[in-house]
């Protein structure tokens, strides 16, 4: 099982937190949805194994997923009408 550490920090001028997802001390990604974003990065690296996310500010494990590929297909959605909830991930559409 892969263990990814999440480090949270405030981004100046923004509400809420951003999170660095670290694997062996190296940043995989910085995101407001770090677990699922990190899964997409790991999948892009050819990794598909169980993964556990550890919160460094709590010193304990958070989310554990049975496979990176499963997590790569998900995202956390939150808006003024609903949320937070887990939904299917889709890439952003590029507008010309």
* Spatial order of strands in the largest sheet: 3-2-1-4-5
- Specify the number of helices: 2
Structural class: alpha+beta
Query: What share of the residues lie within helices?
Result: 10-25%
Q: Using only CA atoms, what is the Rg?
A: 14 Å
Give the tally of structural domains: 1
- Given the C-alpha coordinates, what overall shape results? globular
What order do the SSEs take from the amino end to the carboxyl end, as H and E?
Answer: EEEHEEHEE
| Beta-strand proportion | 35-45%
Q: What's the story with the biggest beta sheet? A: 5 strands, mixed
| Unreliable runs | none
Mean pLDDT: 92
Question: How far from one another are the termini?
Answer: 41 Å
Strand runs, count: 7
Structure in words:
The structure is a single chain. With 96 residues, the chain is an alpha+beta fold. The chain has one domain (2-88). Helix content is 17%, strand content 43%. It contains 2 helices and 7 strands. The chain has helices at 34-44, 68-72, and strands spanning 2-10, 17-23, 26-31, 51-55, 60-65, 74-77, 85-88. The strands form 2 sheets. A 5-stranded mixed sheet has the order 3-2-1-4-5. A two-stranded antiparallel ribbon has the order 6-7. The protein is globular, with a radius of gyration of 14 Å. The chain starts with a strand and ends in an 8-residue tail after the last strand. The model has no long low-confidence stretch (mean pLDDT 92).
